[in-house]
Fold:
Amino acid sequence: MERAFSIFVISLSRRSPGEGGRIRVSFFVISAFACPAVVPRLRDEGGCFVICFPFCASCVTFPFMRRAIYPGSFDPITNGHLDVIERARKLFDEVVVAVAHNDEKQPLFSLKDRLDLLRETAGKIDNVRIAEFEGLLVEFARKEEAGAVIRGLRAVSDFEFEFQMALMNRKLDASVETIFLMPKEEYTYLSSRIVKEIARLGGDVSAFVPVLVARALAIKLKKNISTK
Ligand code: ADP
Structure:
């Protein structure tokens, strides 16, 4: 909560000597904290100079904003991820879907491709922003001023790993809460891994992923086969 916003409007009104030559100075401070995005501007509006410090929308809402991070590999995004995003965005003012730089998993899609697919799907939903991060999730959450991390829970098999990760993140930063959301039943068996497997074997994945992703999978797998 250290950072907030400022709107200063200083208006200097000049009148011609015939009109009394008065200079009126008005100074309004609407809120006084420092925002690094603020750049002062000087405008001349017919003899009235207005110095204003415009503010960014995120600054205005910042003190009241409930933001959550939904981290993952999203290799690629599935309807299960979208279901979780839809649920999360009803609970938070903004959901940041964040792709982890994690080369250990040897993803099928490059980071850029995964981000592009996310932007074209989840990125079109209100209150959803797409981002990427490297390093510790709690540090990214702190940087984004997010109070929560969203994870999806499909089955008991997810639980052990997710539980361990949530407790470790809490140890690293107790101010970041992990929230688990369950998808619609029909998505509980869905994972990016299984979708890739079906696509690789020539199966139809259109019921599991957005059309754009199904198309990207077909192109990617054809390319992979032809380069082998
Ligand atoms: P990660 O590499 O972090 O597991 P994933 O992209 O596989 O990344 O998953 C990101 C998050 O979304 C995880 O919390 C995972 O449990 C959740 N998730 C993945 N698929 C589904 C699904 N079908 N329904 C609900 N949650 C899901």
